[in-house]
């Protein structure tokens, strides 16, 4: 649904995007993450046909953003990171305005708008002035506005930024519904653990270059060069810690009141063999688990010190 090839963008002498490649299948929720200034907004603005690329191509639903911007616009709903709402409108009027801009006839809009307000949980605010809505409500109204023409693709630039935790959860629930409706969604965020729960894939961009892209679990696996295992036994923890040091794929061991922590370089099979050896040696294991890294850890690992080439 989205295909970006060798995309570059320069502002004067500054290279904001350096040959970015990105491919997103229909129905995927794609999380676009990267530090401030990495190039997320630039990429999304190009996809939204608001900015021309310097070189390379970007296609949405098979249409090139430079050659067929009008076709692309029919396919996308775009929510910018900063947006204005017309404060003097009521929410319903606001959506009528956008619906009419897309050429949707009034009778159709009369049916559509209550559905949209319901989707974004604003039905009880249908007669409220936009001015009186909270930030979270305005974000949701903006999302409803993006949906008036039933686009296949949603390009959402930091939709959860500046929202309190409750408003973020509401936004996340709405995005889940949109995914169920079959929309392809590209969403940028700094709130990485939040993103992990709702995206199928992530792309990490840093200094204008994609440094990792794939399914969240795959990227986590690729980064798990060293896993951390946490083991609890009924007794003889110190004895077990000393013994584990000699096992294959174990690089570091330390124990504390919480149990034994093992840095492990093996894969799933080796991890299972280690457990077998521990039990065969007569230790009574209460728990044996791998400490899960969350998306925040993954992101920090990928972007630390620029040592990420093997992931590109
Ligand atoms: N119009 C412009 N003129 C010059 N430089 C620009 C312009 N727009 C963006 N940049 C620069 O390009 C780089 C990428 O900016 P962009 O807004 O795409 O990053 P971002 O990943 O969206 O960051 P943020 O998370 O802070 O919004 C930044 O260094 C920014 O300063």
Automatic annotation (TrEMBL):
<keyword id="KW-0067">ATP-binding</keyword>
<feature type="domain" description="ABC transporter">
    <location>
        <begin position="2"/>
        <end position="232"/>
    </location>
</feature>
<dbReference type="GO" id="GO:0016887">
    <property type="term" value="F:ATP hydrolysis activity"/>
</dbReference>
<dbReference type="InterPro" id="IPR027417">
    <property type="entry name" value="P-loop_NTPase"/>
</dbReference>
<dbReference type="GO" id="GO:0005524">
    <property type="term" value="F:ATP binding"/>
</dbReference>
<dbReference type="Pfam" id="PF00005">
    <property type="entry name" value="ABC_tran"/>
</dbReference>
<protein>
    <submittedName>
        <fullName>ABC-2 type transport system ATP-binding protein</fullName>
    </submittedName>
</protein>
<comment type="similarity">
    <text>Belongs to the ABC transporter superfamily.</text>
</comment>
<dbReference type="InterPro" id="IPR003439">
    <property type="entry name" value="ABC_transporter-like_ATP-bd"/>
</dbReference>
<keyword id="KW-0813">Transport</keyword>
<dbReference type="InterPro" id="IPR003593">
    <property type="entry name" value="AAA+_ATPase"/>
</dbReference>
<keyword id="KW-0547">Nucleotide-binding</keyword>
């Amino acid at each position: 649904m989205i295909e970006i090839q060798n995309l570059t963008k320069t502002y004067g002498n500054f290279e904001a995007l350096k040959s970015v490649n990105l491919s997103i299948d229909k129905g995927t929720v794609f999380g676009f993450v990267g530090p401030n200034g990495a190039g997320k907004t630039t990429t999304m603005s190009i996809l939204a046909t608001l900015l021309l690329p310097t070189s390379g191509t970007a296609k949405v639903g098979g249409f090139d953003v430079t050659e067929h911007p009008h076709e692309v616009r029919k396919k996308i709903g775009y929510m910018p990171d900063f947006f204005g709402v017309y404060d003097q409108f009521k929410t319903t009027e606001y959506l009528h305005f956008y619906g009419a801009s897309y050429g949707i006839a009034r009778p159709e809009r009369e049916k559509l708008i209550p559905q949209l307000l319901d989707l974004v949980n604003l039905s009880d605010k249908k007669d409220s002035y936009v001015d009186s809505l909270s930030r979270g409500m305005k974000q949701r109204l903006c999302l409803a506005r993006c949906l008036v023409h039933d686009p296949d693709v949603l390009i959402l630039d930091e939709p959860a930024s500046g929202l309190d935790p409750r408003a973020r959860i509401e936004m996340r629930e709405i995005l889940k519904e949109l995914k169920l409706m079959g929309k392809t969604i590209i969403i940028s965020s700094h709130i990485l653990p939040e993103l992990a729960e709702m995206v199928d894939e992530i792309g990490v961009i840093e200094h204008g270059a994609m440094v990792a892209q794939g399914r969240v679990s795959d990227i986590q696996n690729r980064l798990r060069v060293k896993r951390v295992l946490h083991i609890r036994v009924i007794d003889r923890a110190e004895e077990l810690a000393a013994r584990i040091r000699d096992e294959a794929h174990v690089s570091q061991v330390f124990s504390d009141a919480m149990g034994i922590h093992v840095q492990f370089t093996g894969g799933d099979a080796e991890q299972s063999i280690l457990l077998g050896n521990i039990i065969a040696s007569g230790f009574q294991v209460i728990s044996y688990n791998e400490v899960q890294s969350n998306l925040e850890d993954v992101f920090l690992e990928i972007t630390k010190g620029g040592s990420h080439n093997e992931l590109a």
